[in-house]
Each structure stands twice: as structure tokens, then as C-alpha cells.
Amino acid sequence: MVLPLLLGAAGTGWLLDQSGILSLDDAGEEIGEAVGGVAAAVVRAVPEIIEELGPAVVDGLSKSVAATREALRGREVQAFAGLTVVVLSFASFWALKSAILPMRRP
Known about the structure:
- The protein is built from 3 helices and no strands.
- The chain has helices at 2-19, 24-72, 76-104.
- The chain has a domain at 75-106.
- The protein is mainly alpha-helical.
């Protein structure tokens, strides 16, 4: 899968060199400058993204917990019963799967 990509890139580079659009002697420098520019832009943007994303995630989690608390108010017993059923069902399925699968192996 990588070989066709490499062949295509090499062929494209050769065509660009032969047509005079891009000199392969300077291609490394030009590609390096382009990658360096993109990397510098990403590095400058990361602190801003983290600065905006951190409080947004915390605020979203806080609102989710508050909404869940409000939705379950007065129905705590049913919520814990449902959670218990889910946990026991998962544990039972896992135990049965662990007991049955070794028997099926040749």
C-alpha cells in the first residue's frame, strides 16, 4: 500500500522537475520550509486550544452531572436498581462466556 504512494510521489516529482515547475534540488528546502511553517502554526495554536477547551470540558461535565442529578431526583432507588441489573447482567454474561469458550476450543 505504501509502494504505490512512493512510486506516485517519485513520478510526480520527476514530472515536475522535467517540466520546470519545481527543481528537485530545491524541493527539500521548500518542503522543509512548508512543514516548518505548518508546525510553527500548530505549536502557536495549541496553547489557545487548550486554554479554551479545558474550561469547556469542565463546564460540560458539570452541566451533565447537574442534569443527571435533576433527572434522577426522586427516582434514586429505580436508578440504582437499574444500574445493579446492568452490572449483574454483564458479570453473568462474562462468567458464562469464560466458562463456555474453553470448552469449544479444539
